[in-house]
Design a protein that fits this description.
The complex is a heterodimer of chains A (69) and B (232). Chain A has 69 residues and is mainly alpha-helical. Chain A is 71% helix and 0% strand. Chain A has a domain of 25 residues. In chain B, α2 packs antiparallel against α3, α3 runs antiparallel to α7 and α4 packs antiparallel against α6. Classes of the chains: A mainly alpha (69), B mainly alpha (232).
């Protein structure tokens, strides 16, 4: 295969592989971002449910470190 | 949903802009390689995602050391977040490499030293997630996890240098190629610009994803604590 690439006149026609490569990168990265969002949403639901059961407990994600330090 | 910090919103926007520019550079600025054709463009993101994978594992190892020194749970969450991101991006590195290899090496896969060490590295960090799932006590889990990510980091330099130390067909970007390397090419200035910009962009992708994943980890920790409080 490498010889046929070297002795050809123009570049090899490999566009389909390029598209496949970038499609994989975009799809997997998008899937990971969606998974982060879904996990966040599920935690938010759990938090709301727990807050109903424990009305005095109110949590704020960004202040967590300060309150635990 | 909890409001996110303004700085994170700015970082999201900045990273998205960088990403769009890098895509534009890959497809419209960088020239087509004379022999391999368009598949050579996979190289820009193949190396960039590999860089993010290794950077993540380095961050996890540093977090492991800091956890053992301080016993602060935030470093355990940091290591977990870094490993998760590292696994995703190393997977992308392996898959994009395989797609590039099909027309250039005439095979999807070969047990070349670089491909083998990268796969072992990926599996080592998968095992880290399995190890964590198997330990109930949070403090013990964090301690074992910290030791594991420090020891597991040995696989990272081994993977990086495998294409330089062993007889391999995998080309290298920095340094001298092995005599049997197939698919190497000389980069034009535009290719170098695109390559460096892709590395820069994906470094920001890593920082952005780490911040989001850390927030998620902290939130999960809080919800877990609330559940424990309820069960008492």
């Amino acid at each position: 295969m490498i010889f046929s690439l070297l002795f050809q006149e123009g570049p090899a026609e490999t566009t389909a592989y390029m598209i496949a490569g970038y499609a994989v990168v975009l799809v997997v990265m998008a899937a990971y971002i969606v998974s982060l969002w879904l996990r966040w949403r599920n935690l938010h639901r759990d938090q709301e449910m727990l807050e109903k059961l424990l009305p005095s407990q109110k949590i704020e994600p960004e202040s967590w470190e300060e309150r635990n330090s | 949903m909890q409001p996110k910090p303004k700085a994170l919103t700015y970082l999201d926007t900045f990273t998205a802009i960088l990403f769009l520019i890098s895509v534009g550079m890959v497809f419209f600025y960088a020239p087509m390689e004379a022999v391999m054709g368009n598949v050579q463009r996979v190289f820009y993101y193949h190396v960039a995602v590999g860089w993010v994978g290794m950077l993540s594992f380095l961050a996890a190892a540093i977090a492991g050391i800091l956890y053992l020194k301080s016993k602060d749970r935030k470093w355990d969450l940091f290591a977990l977040a870094a490993v998760e991101i590292g696994i995703v991006f190393t997977f992308l590195n392996i898959v994009t490499g395989s797609i590039w290899a099909r027309p250039i090496w005439n095979t999807w896969w070969t047990w070349d030293p670089r491909l083998t060490t990268a796969t072992i590295m990926e599996l080592i960090y998968f095992a880290y997630l399995m190890l964590r799932q198997g330990i109930e006590d949070p403090e013990r889990r964090a301690r074992f996890g910290a030791v594991y990510v420090i020891l597991g980091f040995v696989s990272v330099p081994l993977t990086f240098f495998s294409a330089r130390l062993f007889r391999t067909i995998h080309p290298v970007v920095i340094g001298t190629n092995q005599p049997g390397a197939e698919g190497q090419f000389d980069m034009t200035p535009r290719m170098v610009h695109t390559f460096l910009f892709s590395l820069f962009t994906f470094t920001f992708v890593f920082i952005d994803l780490m911040w989001h994943r850390l927030r998620l980890g902290r939130f999960a920790d809080q919800v877990e604590q609330l559940k424990l409080r309820l069960s008492l």
